[in-house]
From TrEMBL:
<feature type="domain" description="TauD/TfdA-like">
    <location>
        <begin position="37"/>
        <end position="97"/>
    </location>
</feature>
<keyword id="KW-0560">Oxidoreductase</keyword>
<protein>
    <recommendedName>
        <fullName>TauD/TfdA-like domain-containing protein</fullName>
    </recommendedName>
</protein>
<dbReference type="GO" id="GO:0016491">
    <property type="term" value="F:oxidoreductase activity"/>
</dbReference>
<dbReference type="InterPro" id="IPR003819">
    <property type="entry name" value="TauD/TfdA-like"/>
</dbReference>
<dbReference type="InterPro" id="IPR042098">
    <property type="entry name" value="TauD-like_sf"/>
</dbReference>
<dbReference type="Pfam" id="PF02668">
    <property type="entry name" value="TauD"/>
</dbReference>
<dbReference type="InterPro" id="IPR050411">
    <property type="entry name" value="AlphaKG_dependent_hydroxylases"/>
</dbReference>
Length: 101
Protein backbone atom coordinates (compact mmCIF):
# COMPACT_ATOMS: atom_id res chain seq x y z
CA UNK A 1 0.00 0.00 0.00
CA UNK A 2 1.32 3.41 -0.89
CA UNK A 3 1.09 6.63 1.07
CA UNK A 4 -2.33 7.57 2.39
CA UNK A 5 -2.99 11.24 3.15
CA UNK A 6 -3.58 12.08 6.82
CA UNK A 7 -5.85 14.97 5.89
CA UNK A 8 -8.87 14.60 3.61
CA UNK A 9 -11.26 17.05 2.03
CA UNK A 10 -14.74 16.90 3.54
CA UNK A 11 -16.64 17.79 0.39
CA UNK A 12 -19.93 18.38 2.23
CA UNK A 13 -18.31 21.15 4.27
CA UNK A 14 -15.61 22.11 1.76
CA UNK A 15 -12.87 21.95 4.37
CA UNK A 16 -9.88 19.80 5.19
CA UNK A 17 -10.24 17.35 8.06
CA UNK A 18 -7.79 15.27 10.10
CA UNK A 19 -8.66 11.73 9.06
CA UNK A 20 -6.14 9.20 10.34
CA UNK A 21 -4.99 7.17 13.31
CA UNK A 22 -1.44 8.49 13.48
CA UNK A 23 -1.38 9.08 17.23
CA UNK A 24 -2.98 5.71 18.07
CA UNK A 25 -0.66 3.87 15.70
CA UNK A 26 2.42 5.57 17.10
CA UNK A 27 1.47 5.42 20.77
CA UNK A 28 -0.30 2.05 20.97
CA UNK A 29 0.54 -0.33 18.13
CA UNK A 30 3.57 -1.98 19.70
CA UNK A 31 3.41 -5.76 19.65
CA UNK A 32 4.90 -8.76 17.83
CA UNK A 33 3.39 -7.61 14.52
CA UNK A 34 3.90 -3.85 14.81
CA UNK A 35 6.73 -1.47 15.57
CA UNK A 36 4.94 1.68 16.69
CA UNK A 37 7.70 4.00 15.49
CA UNK A 38 7.42 2.51 12.00
CA UNK A 39 3.61 2.23 11.95
CA UNK A 40 3.16 5.69 10.42
CA UNK A 41 5.62 7.39 8.08
CA UNK A 42 5.83 10.39 5.83
CA UNK A 43 5.02 9.82 2.15
CA UNK A 44 8.74 9.46 1.42
CA UNK A 45 9.07 6.68 4.03
CA UNK A 46 10.76 8.88 6.64
CA UNK A 47 9.80 8.40 10.27
CA UNK A 48 7.77 10.92 12.23
CA UNK A 49 9.63 12.70 15.03
CA UNK A 50 8.31 11.52 18.38
CA UNK A 51 7.91 15.11 19.60
CA UNK A 52 5.53 15.82 16.69
CA UNK A 53 3.33 12.85 17.57
CA UNK A 54 3.37 13.73 21.26
CA UNK A 55 2.42 17.30 20.32
CA UNK A 56 -0.63 15.98 18.46
CA UNK A 57 -1.52 13.77 21.43
CA UNK A 58 -1.28 16.80 23.74
CA UNK A 59 -3.59 18.83 21.49
CA UNK A 60 -6.10 15.95 21.42
CA UNK A 61 -6.09 15.84 25.24
CA UNK A 62 -6.44 19.62 25.56
CA UNK A 63 -9.35 19.75 23.12
CA UNK A 64 -11.17 16.65 24.36
CA UNK A 65 -14.59 16.74 25.98
CA UNK A 66 -15.74 13.97 28.30
CA UNK A 67 -19.37 13.00 27.83
CA UNK A 68 -21.09 12.37 31.21
CA UNK A 69 -22.96 9.26 30.04
CA UNK A 70 -26.19 8.19 31.70
CA UNK A 71 -28.23 5.07 31.04
CA UNK A 72 -30.24 5.47 27.85
CA UNK A 73 -28.04 8.20 26.36
CA UNK A 74 -27.47 8.30 22.61
CA UNK A 75 -24.66 10.11 20.83
CA UNK A 76 -24.74 10.85 17.12
CA UNK A 77 -21.58 12.17 15.53
CA UNK A 78 -20.17 12.73 12.08
CA UNK A 79 -17.02 10.64 11.76
CA UNK A 80 -15.63 13.14 9.23
CA UNK A 81 -16.02 16.12 11.54
CA UNK A 82 -15.25 14.86 15.06
CA UNK A 83 -12.35 12.91 16.47
CA UNK A 84 -13.60 10.32 18.91
CA UNK A 85 -12.06 7.86 21.31
CA UNK A 86 -12.55 6.36 24.71
CA UNK A 87 -10.69 6.44 27.98
CA UNK A 88 -9.86 3.33 30.02
CA UNK A 89 -12.88 1.90 31.82
CA UNK A 90 -13.84 -0.67 34.44
CA UNK A 91 -16.04 -3.49 33.16
CA UNK A 92 -18.82 -4.20 32.64
CA UNK A 93 -19.33 -1.90 29.69
CA UNK A 94 -21.93 -2.29 26.97
CA UNK A 95 -21.82 -0.21 23.81
CA UNK A 96 -24.31 -0.52 20.99
CA UNK A 97 -23.05 1.13 17.82
CA UNK A 98 -24.44 1.63 14.36
CA UNK A 99 -22.62 3.03 11.38
CA UNK A 100 -24.45 4.62 8.49
CA UNK A 101 -23.55 6.36 5.30
Amino acid sequence: MGPIPGVKLDEARNRKTWFNMMVDAYMCWDDALNDRKKAVTFGDGGYLPEEAVRGCERIFQEESVAIPWKKGDVLLLDNRAVLHARNPFDPPRRILASLCK
